[in-house]
Predict the 3D structure of the following.
Amino acid sequence: MLLESIPRRLERRSGQSQRCLALDRISACRLSRHFKPDRLTDFWANGMAAELAVRHGVGTVVLDVRRGDGPAGCFGYTFASVAASDAALASRPTVGAAVKRAIGRAHDLLRKDIGLAMKIGSRLFPTEEASLIESLIARDLPWYETEIHIGDFAAINSVLDKLGC
């Protein structure tokens, strides 16, 4: 529900297409192999899925809200995050800070040696995706943070409130 609702909210705020499909990296591969470009008008994808769609000739990047395209406020719900319940954090009060430090350390290591992305990605992804991971990480690394800014948190909560969550 959330994956479908966020693209629809982007569509409403941008005045663009009414048809949208949420994709993960596997779906983009399937899309590129099984759909003709004229059968789907728009889709919502993460960086990997978008890159695969472009490379397979079934998509173009019209807007990338992470880089300032699209309606104001949309950046606030286009990032990865780690979530934990209040109860989990109360029972293990140091785990949140430890996770944040680990993610920050991973970011620092990637900034020092982007080749680590390929070393790790080749163990986690299929061949085609693994071949792209280093360039995708290098492209997106400037936006990697360990903080969720208050405005972004407010944007996420606004979407969730409107969805009745």
Q: What stands out?
A: Residues 82-147 form one domain. The longest strand covers residues 22-23. The chain is about 55% helix and 0% strand.
